[in-house]
């Protein structure tokens, strides 16, 4: 008798004394992957199928459907389920073995409104807060970009903290304003070069204005009787003569041999008793007197046996 049936077959009629064994193709839903004298083929496992006869293996049933579809039918020994596209008004947003699609959302309860996302086989509108609002009950205003130094009091409306301004509360406020500089923080100025003070209104004179005030950057306005770049040079209303120097307002320092307010008076150190000092250390004597200091009388006729 026949030794064995080939693969994909089974013994449908056993060997007898008058006839050999008969081999027949495995029926749909079964398989045989070895040569044998088995009287039946092996049934496909629960997750596999075989729609044709005479096969050595079964096929894997459909495992999942893509988003936008659902599993239609079930896995049998001879058939696999199919993927059916979601119908109008329904959707499926994940891939898997879902057996039906979900209904798209078409109405919302106030204060929520439908989002702009359309109903497609993979998407559905959702219930969202109206534009400019958020939170579980849509009562929290939204300010796009935020309110840096303030709070959002209404959709895209910021209420700034003290010392701040601008649509997003990012601009510091200085009061009084920064005259010659920038406001870098509430009531904090960053002054331009050559300016100082809380509001950058005070000019700076790098070397100072000794006897005056700094009236503009690098420019002094001197007090009366003073002059010079730094107001350190005194003024004498009448010039100091004979080499004298003005050392304070209307005060001269005279050279040796001169005196007086403007150094115009000669000085004779020993004095000119009977005369006048006509030049430094030079006396002009009155009539009848002579000598360096005009202290010697003159007797025209002489004093024969006496003194003048």
Instruction: List the uncertain runs.
Output: none
* Protein structure class: mainly beta
Mean pLDDT: 94
Helical content, roughly? under 10%
Biggest sheet, in brief?
A: 2 strands, antiparallel
Strand content: 25-35%
Give a count of the beta strands, DSSP E runs of length 2 or more: 34
The backbone outline, from C-alpha atoms, is rod-shaped
Q: Rg, please?
A: 61 Å
Ends distance: 195 Å
Biggest sheet, strands in spatial order? 1-2
Separate helix tally? 0
Short description:
With 308 residues, the protein is mainly β. It is built from no helices and 34 strands.
Keywords for this entry:
34 strands, two-stranded antiparallel ribbon, rod-shaped, mainly beta, 308 residues, 32% strand, single chain
Would you kindly provide a written description of the structure presented here, covering whatever features stand out?
The chain has strands spanning 9-13, 22-25, 30-31, 42-43, 48-49, 59-60, 69-72, 82-85, 90-91, 102-103, 113-114, 127-128, 133-134, 140-141, 150-154, 157-160, 164-165, 171-172, 181-185, 188-191, 195-196, 202-203, 212-216, 219-222, 226-227, 233-234, 245-248, 251-253, 258-259, 265-266, 275-279, 282-285, 289-290, 296-297. By secondary structure, it is mainly β. The strands form 17 sheets. A two-stranded antiparallel ribbon has the order 1-2. The chain is rod-shaped.
